[in-house]
Structures are given as structure tokens and as C-alpha cells.
């Protein structure tokens, strides 16, 4: 192997694993704080679930209500500005849940992430996988990443896990509140798809769709579990229809479980399309695209130093050490096709405490996006991408402060405000 593949060592101030919403926000936050920052991503593009799973709705940017109340600014706002400059409409719409969401175009989102990283001097390594963490005395000293040329050991003063699957936290030995490995123990996955060929002016009749689905399900090997047809929304730029009606169990971690889910989801995409074509206006509909992978809601969850709790959400609690705002309801997918929403209390948002982005037992590891510390119910709120921009931004600045030799909450809060975040 030594003759065929290289091995080298590099040094940065901050290393971020995963380039979704939480990862880009962490990397930009760290870089804006003066840290030499490396962002590592396994795909050939950034964007996380929005681009790798076609989850084309940013949830959590706005609180519920008749008026648009934005709760996430900072790096998240900067990304929306990049999308608008490309030509995407970023004005929020009211979703089926009753909450405001921002619909996305996947190609614009990829480019928007690229531009945001370059403008902020973030060094990005695409096509790279995290395969190891070297820990001593309660600190990560370096991580190992691999590409086709070989393995690179990257040393840094601080690290951010924005992997979604808590890969870095797991490799570093952080205790897990949800260890994963059981499909029934985690929230179901979904495969959204893009539909083309819909007749202009078509109005979706949910009652008719429910009747078509009920008839289909009488004999279907794989029934459509969202009895009312799920979510159908028109996308910006392309004008295609975004359809989310495929839900399956998977542990989201092992190749065996993921392979089975991917196979079944693609079968469902084609059989469901035949049902949709019976709806007026959709007769010539076709499957334009599925994502590179199925959309994963939950796998492993690490403990933090101050996990977000169900009470934080339902009472809309404020905290003196708050570093981000959460405003999405507790969206809990109890089984494939069955979800419930628990409203956010108080003023329609809650504070995420600084300790929630600090990994338990590993001093220089920060958590971002859906791997921040949260109990099982609160996780249904904090995991969404809008909120991930806020927690990632805080995690990146926190990591930069850690790499520089010290961290206190007041300084973190001040830096967030300086960079345009709302806390």
C-alpha cells in the first residue's frame, strides 16, 4: 500500500467534518474568526441533505405565525443571499405543516455553497472521507481522511462534527444518547423526488389523490404510507414539482440497511408515479431526479454538555447562555408515513445553550447541525437545516476560540453578534 498510496500530515486551526448546512456555517464562522479552516465532505458537492437527498425545503429559518419572523441570520442569511444572486426565489412560503419554509433548487444550492466557501477563505476537500480520530487526554489531536490518492492526517486545535451521523464524535469516543444500529429505534427516512411534465396551472386535489392512493394500496406490495399524497410543492427556477411521499425504515449507518432502503425507495418512486399520473394534469409526469442518497433524519446522537430538552421546546425557554434560536416544532416521525408536530411554546422560539454544541468528554470537539446534544423529542426540532445554520455558526466560532486557547460564552455570543447572528 505504501508504494501505491501516499500518506502525509497537514495542520489547520479548525477542521469541520461534513459540508451541509451546519458544516458550511461552522467553517465560515471559524474562518471569519481568523482560524485557518478545513471543511471535509465525502460528496463532490456541498449542501448536505438539500443536495444529496433532495430535501429541498429549508425549515427553521422562520417562526410560525401570520407574519414572517426570521429567527436565523448570520451565515444562514449569507447563503440565502447567494441563492438569490444566482436567481433562486428565497421568499418563504407556508408549508403543509403551517410553518414558513424556503424552497430550494438543488443546483443553485450547490453553487451557493461553493461561492460562500470561497468568499470566506474556507479550504474545502470534496471527495474525502473521515476514517479515524486520534485522541489523547480528552482531546482530538488529529483526524485521518482518505481520498483516491491516499490518507491525510490532519492536526488541528479544534474540530467540528457536522457529519449528520456523528461520525467524528463516534470515532473520538463521545458517549451516545442514541447509538443507532436499529431501524425501528430512529425516525424513518424519506426519499423526495423531482417530477417534471406537469401541466401548467394544475391544482393538486388532495381528496382525489387520497382516493387514488386508497385504491392503489388495496393490492400494492409496497403501499403509499402518506394517505393524503404527502407533500407536493413547485420548485423555484425549474418549476418542477417536489414530491415527498416515500418513507422507509433504515438504520442509516450500515451499508446493508441503506442498500435495502435505496432499492425499495427507487421501486416506490416509479410505482407511486403511476398513481400520480391518474390525477388530472399529471398524465405526462415523469421522474426527473432522485437524490444521490435517501434522506436520513436520525442515526446516532452524541451527548453534549447541555442537551436541548423537550421542555426547552414546548415552553419556548430562554437561557442566559443561548447561542442560537430554534423555531421549528418537534417533528417526530414515529413510523414510516406517520408524523406528528408539537408546537414551540413561548414566543415561538427557544434558546439553544452553548453546552449543546460542546461534545461530552472531548474538550475540543464541537457539534453542529443534527448532531448537537438533544433528547429524543427535542431532536425532532433541532435537526432541521435552518436551525443547523444557526448551531453550525456557533460551533465554528466556538471551535476557533478553542483553537486560539480559550473559550467563554460571553465572547462566543459577542462574536456571533459581530457576524450578524441572532441570539
From TrEMBL:
<keyword id="KW-0408">Iron</keyword>
<protein>
    <submittedName>
        <fullName>FAD-dependent oxidoreductase</fullName>
    </submittedName>
</protein>
<keyword id="KW-0479">Metal-binding</keyword>
<keyword id="KW-0812">Transmembrane</keyword>
<keyword id="KW-0560">Oxidoreductase</keyword>
<feature type="transmembrane region" description="Helical">
    <location>
        <begin position="12"/>
        <end position="31"/>
    </location>
</feature>
<dbReference type="Pfam" id="PF12831">
    <property type="entry name" value="FAD_oxidored"/>
</dbReference>
<keyword id="KW-0004">4Fe-4S</keyword>
<dbReference type="InterPro" id="IPR036188">
    <property type="entry name" value="FAD/NAD-bd_sf"/>
</dbReference>
<keyword id="KW-0472">Membrane</keyword>
<dbReference type="InterPro" id="IPR039650">
    <property type="entry name" value="HdrA-like"/>
</dbReference>
<keyword id="KW-0411">Iron-sulfur</keyword>
<keyword id="KW-1133">Transmembrane helix</keyword>
Amino acid at each position: 500500500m505504501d508504494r501505491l498510496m501516499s500518506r502525509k500530515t497537514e495542520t489547520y486551526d479548525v477542521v469541520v467534518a461534513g459540508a451541509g448546512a451546519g458544516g458550511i456555517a461552522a467553517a465560515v464562522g471559524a474562518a471569519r474568526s481568523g482560524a485557518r479552516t478545513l471543511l471535509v465532505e465525502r460528496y463532490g458537492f456541498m449542501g448536505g441533505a438539500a443536495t444529496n437527498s433532495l430535501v429541498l425545503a429549508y425549515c427553521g429559518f422562520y417562526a410560525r405565525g401570520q407574519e414572517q419572523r426570521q429567527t436565523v441570520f448570520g451565515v444562514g442569511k449569507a447563503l440565502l443571499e447567494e441563492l438569490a444572486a444566482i436567481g433562486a426565489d428565497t421568499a418563504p412560503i407556508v408549508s403543509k405543516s403551517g410553518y414558513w419554509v424556503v424552497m430550494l433548487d438543488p443546483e443553485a444550492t450547490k453553487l451557493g455553497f461553493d461561492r460562500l466557501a470561497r468568499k470566506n477563505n474556507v479550504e474545502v476537500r470534496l471527495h474525502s472521507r473521515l476514517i479515524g480520530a486520534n485522541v489523547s487526554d480528552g482531546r482530538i489531536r488529529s483526524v485521518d481522511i482518505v481520498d483516491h490518492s491516499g490518507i491525510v492526517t490532519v492536526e488541528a486545535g479544534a474540530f467540528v462534527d457536522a457529519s449528520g451521523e456523528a461520525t467524528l464524535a463516534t470515532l473520538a469516543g463521545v458517549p451516545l444518547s442514541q447509538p443507532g444500529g436499529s431501524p425501528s429505534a430512529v425516525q424513518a427516512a424519506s426519499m423526495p423526488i423531482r417530477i417534471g411534465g406537469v401541466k401548467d396551472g394544475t391544482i393538486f386535489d388532495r381528496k382525489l389523490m387520497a382516493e387514488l392512493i386508497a385504491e392503489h394500496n388495496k393490492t400494492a406490495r409496497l403501499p403509499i404510507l402518506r394517505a393524503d399524497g404527502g407533500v407536493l410543492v413547485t420548485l423555484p427556477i425549474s418549476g418542477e414539482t417536489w414530491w415527498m411521499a416515500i418513507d422507509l425504515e433504515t438504520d442509516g449507518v450500515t451499508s446493508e440497511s441503506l442498500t435495502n432502503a435505496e432499492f425499495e425507495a427507487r421501486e416506490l418512486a416509479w410505482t407511486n408515479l403511476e398513481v400520480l399520473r391518474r390525477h388530472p394534469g399529471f398524465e405526462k409526469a415523469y421522474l426527473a431526479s432522485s437524490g444521490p442518497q435517501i434522506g436520513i433524519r436520525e442515526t446516532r446522537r452524541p451527548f453534549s454538555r447541555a442537551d436541548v430538552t423537550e421542555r426547552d421546546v414546548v415552553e419556548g425557554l430562554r437561557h442566559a447562555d443561548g447561542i442560537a434560536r430554534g423555531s421549528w416544532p418537534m417533528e417526530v416521525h414515529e413510523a414510516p408515513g406517520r408524523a406528528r408536530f408539537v408546537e414551540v411554546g413561548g414566543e415561538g422560539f427557544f434558546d439553544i445553550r452553548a453546552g449543546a454544541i460542546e461534545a461530552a468528554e472531548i474538550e475540543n470537539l464541537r457539534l453542529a447541525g443534527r448532531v448537537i446534544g438533544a433528547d429524543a423529542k427535542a431532536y425532532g426540532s433541532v435537526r432541521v437545516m435552518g436551525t443547523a445554520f444557526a448551531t453550525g455558526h456557533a460551533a465554528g466560532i466556538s471551535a476557533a476560540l478553542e483553537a486560539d486557547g480559550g473559550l467563554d460564552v460571553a465572547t462566543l455570543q459577542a462574536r456571533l453578534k459581530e457576524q450578524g447572528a441572532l441570539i
